[in-house]
Design goal:
- The protein is of the alpha+beta class and 377 residues long.
- The protein folds into 3 domains: 127 residues, no CATH class; 132 residues; 87 residues, no CATH class.
- The protein is 34% helix and 22% strand.
- The protein contains 9 helices and 13 strands.
- The chain has a 5-stranded antiparallel β-sheet with strand order 9-10-11-12-13, with helices on one face. A 4-stranded antiparallel β-sheet has the order 1-2-3-4.
- A hairpin with a 6-residue loop joins strand 9 and strand 10.
- The chain is globular and about 75 Å long.
- Its main location: cytoplasm.
């Protein structure tokens, strides 16, 4: 498989600025050249986040004329989405503000402005599609929920099932990034309620209950397990405005507990030092991992601590790793996961560390024997 040439410098500057500074977590699917044996690549596929999914489009520049604005081609599933038509339909004022007017290739922010503009147009296009449905319940939900800041909605049409309307509702008026001390998260972290309503047919019986689930950005999952939050049942005749308050109250408690757990994990890692010495490595932000160096006579080994988000309700998982014994691939021999040592969440932090130390004093002898037997003859 041949490697594609690098992007033209002017085009690369536009793309790099988008990836570095956009508040959206835009992904680049592929980069390629428009002509064979070209010196530079000049086109790429973007996945733009929308309504807890992605909208894909090809951004097509001309490497021979990189200062010219790109064409943007959406995949076939968006055939009836006409962003230029939407711009034109809003009159001259809207056209004059378009990112495609007065394109300046030397301004690296132009592509980012164009992507954000297209996403806004796509959002309005989806709202219009949903608003045209002949479904009283969905019209009611649209009218009551769309004024809520940040909500997104789209019509999902699949060939093998009835149409559905998906809402993505951001939850909690809290800045999760600021709640986690010293966090390095680049994008704003969010928790959403995804709710999918089946579109009712004319003269159908009572509308079916929607499907609901919580969805979070990836970094939030390192803070606490959103998937484990139990959602209340959807009752007959209920609407979203009635359903959301109980969920948000429960989530706020979960977030407060998760932030408190960071402090508990940090104190646990600090309590390891008097017994094991200063950790070789430790996660300084979420305090989910730590590694210490141990010795029993001439036998030296590492102990890797994996500390769960539910600490201290759930105990850390340990893995012992020899620094002297290696398998046939040259990899240090490690123990299976260890979580059957003495533990109580009611112990104070120094006692937790001390009981683990006492356990490892004996367990390291079994581990040394395990390493010797595991060495290939």
């Amino acid at each position: 498989m041949s490697m594609e040439p690098p992007l033209s410098p002017l085009i690369a500057a536009q793309l790099n600025h988008l990836l570095a500074y956009s508040p959206l977590s835009v992904k680049v699917e592929q980069i390629w050249a428009g002509s064979r044996n070209a010196r530079f690549s000049d086109r790429f596929t973007l996945s733009i986040p929308f309504c807890l999914d992605y909208v894909k489009c090809d951004v097509i520049y001309d490497a021979l004329h990189p200062s010219v604005a790109p064409d943007v081609v959406f995949s076939s599933e968006y055939d009836d989405f006409d962003p230029l038509g939407d711009i034109a339909s809003e009159g001259e004022a809207r056209v004059s503000k378009s990112s495609l007017c007065d394109w300046n290739s030397k301004d690296p922010s132009r592509l980012m402005a164009l992507v954000h503009e297209l996403r806004d147009l796509y959002m309005h296009y989806q709202r219009r599609r949903v608003g045209e449905l002949d479904d009283a319940r969905i019209k009611f939900e649209m009218n009551t929920m769309l004024p809520r800041e940040g909500i997104e909605v789209c019509l999902v049409s699949l060939p093998d099932r009835l149409e559905e309307v998906k809402f993505a509702v951001p939850l909690l008026d809290m800045d999760l990034n600021k709640l986690v001390p010293a966090c390095t998260w680049r994008h704003q972290q969010k928790i959403y309620l995804q709710i999918i309503f089946p579109v009712s047919r004319r003269n159908s019986s009572a509308p079916a209950a929607p499907r609901v689930k919580l969805v979070s950005t990836s970094e939030v999952k390192t803070l606490f397990s959103v998937e484990d939050v139990k959602l209340p049942p959807w009752l007959d005749g209920m609407c979203l405005a009635e359903y959301l308050p109980a969920i948000e109250d429960n989530l706020k408690l979960q977030v407060v507990e998760a932030i408190a757990s960071i402090g508990a994990r940090r104190r646990f890692i600090e309590a390891l030092s008097p017994l094991f010495g200063r950790p070789l490595e430790a996660d300084p932000v979420l305090c989910r991992r730590a590694t210490v160096l141990c010795a029993s006579g001439a036998f030296t080994f590492l102990v890797h601590f994996s500390i769960p988000t539910q600490f201290p309700k759930q105990q850390p998982t340990l893995v012992m790793q020899s620094s002297q014994h290696f398998n046939s691939q040259g990899t240090p021999i490690s123990s299976p996961l260890i979580n059957d040592y003495p533990w109580s969440p009611r112990w104070d932090t120094p006692q937790m560390a001390e009981r683990i130390f006492e356990f490892l004093v004996d367990e390291c002898l079994n581990f040394k024997k395990f390493c010797i037997e595991a060495i290939p003859q």
